[in-house]
Amino acid sequence: MRFLLLFLTLGLAAWAQEGPPPDLSPEVFRIARELRCPVCQGESTAESNAGVAVEMRRLIAEMLEEGKTREEIKAFFVERYGEWILYEPPRRGLTLWVWVLPVVGIFLLGLGLFAHFRPHKPLPQELLEEAERRLKEPPS
Amino acid sequence: MRGLWFLLPLALAGLFWWGMQRDPRELPSVLAKERRPAPDFALPLLPPYREAWGETFRLGEYLGKKPIVLNFWASWCFPACYEEAPILEAAWRRHRERVLFLGVNVQDREPEALRFIDQFGLTFPNVFDPRGRVGVDYGMYGVPETFFIDQEGRVLARHAGAVDQATLERYLKEMLP
Q1: Per the CB < 8 Å rule, is B135 touching A52?
Q2: Tell me: the pLDDT tens digits for A56-81?
Q3: Which chain B residues are Cβ-neighbours of A84 within 8 angstroms?
Q4: Which pTM value belongs to this model?
Q5: Which residues of B touch A35 (CB under 8 A)?
Q6: How far apart are the first and last CA of chain B?
Q7: What is the pLDDT of residue B13?
Q8: Could you identify which of A3, B124, B130, B162 might form a hypothetical disulfide with B92, taking C-beta atoms 3.0 to 4.6 angstroms apart as the criterion?
Q9: How far is CA A26 from CA A54, A60, A61, B25, B131, in A?
């Protein structure tokens, strides 16, 4: 019985793994992951099953076969869709701020924390003595 | 220096406000923005148009001669493609002497595409592109999408979504000399 159960579990696991074998090389998906799927919201071309995304993967595979580099392939899509198609915003122009602002933010936070926690200068001696004296004085 | 701290929240508020004014769904067409020459393609015509237009349709043969209205559609694109089909057909009948209308059926099955054509009695030529490769060349996002190509063969405008009569007439007026 136990043997049968084991057999069944393993069999089911193997069955679940079945499905269409990946006909495109992992490199295709590595490039596709850096490109946006034009028709979906927040999905890359690697994940989406939309017709355009499938066709884009095929195009990437074809271009790789032609010996094009990753940069050339990405440029092909930027040429047609604009820089919007890239998941990672380019580090220049307006989108440079996306890269710079977090660093600026962390710097400002550090500055604020330093200002908050830095050891304060002790009060002048005469002020401390004055405070001591007033505390000892009976309230009038 | 201390007095300048209030500028930071102000700058952030400004950035936020500017972000709110932007339309994230607005997807500018690279082709239309730079008025680039329309990419050429050759695709098989769907059976009903073969007699009049031949087996394959090469856009390059018509580019630079007449303004072209290039419409991408699919039979599964409901309701947008169904809304604009009669409008496109009516406009084609009115302007067929001066403007070429071309439908590109993308990512579809032929019988369903033929049913769609039959349903609306589309008389302008329609080509079949089940892979949707031409769409990528035009930087198409999703059907329906219409590209307006001027007399010089340059992309003048791209309209995403169903095109209504007033919009279509406006683009046609812009295209026609």
Answers
A1: yes
A2: 999 999 999 999 999 999 999 999 99
A3: 27
A4: 0.76
A5: none
A6: 61
A7: 92
A8: B124
A9: 14, 11, 10, 31, 22
Which residues have CB under 8 Å from A33's CB, separation 6+?
A44, A45, A46, A47, A87
Write the residue in A59, A84, A108 that is nearest to B136 by C-beta: A59
Residues of B in contact with A39 (CB under 8 A): 141-142
Nearest Cα residue to B59 out of B32, B39, B78, B31: B39
| A39 and chain B in contact, CB less than 8 A | yes
HSE, side-chain direction, 13 A CA sphere, residue B34: 11
d(CA B13, nearest CA chain A) in Å:
15
User: For residue A56, which of A66, A42, A44 has the smallest C-alpha distance?
Assistant: A44
Spans of chain A below 50 pLDDT: 14-21
**Per-residue three-class SS string for B76-110:** CCCCHHHHHHHHHHHHHHHHCCCCEEEEEEECCCH
* B159 three-class SS: strand
Task: Look at residues A20, A63, A19, A31 and name the one whose alpha carbon lies nearest to residue B133.
Answer: A63
Q: Chain B closest CA to A28's CA: distance in Å?
A: 17
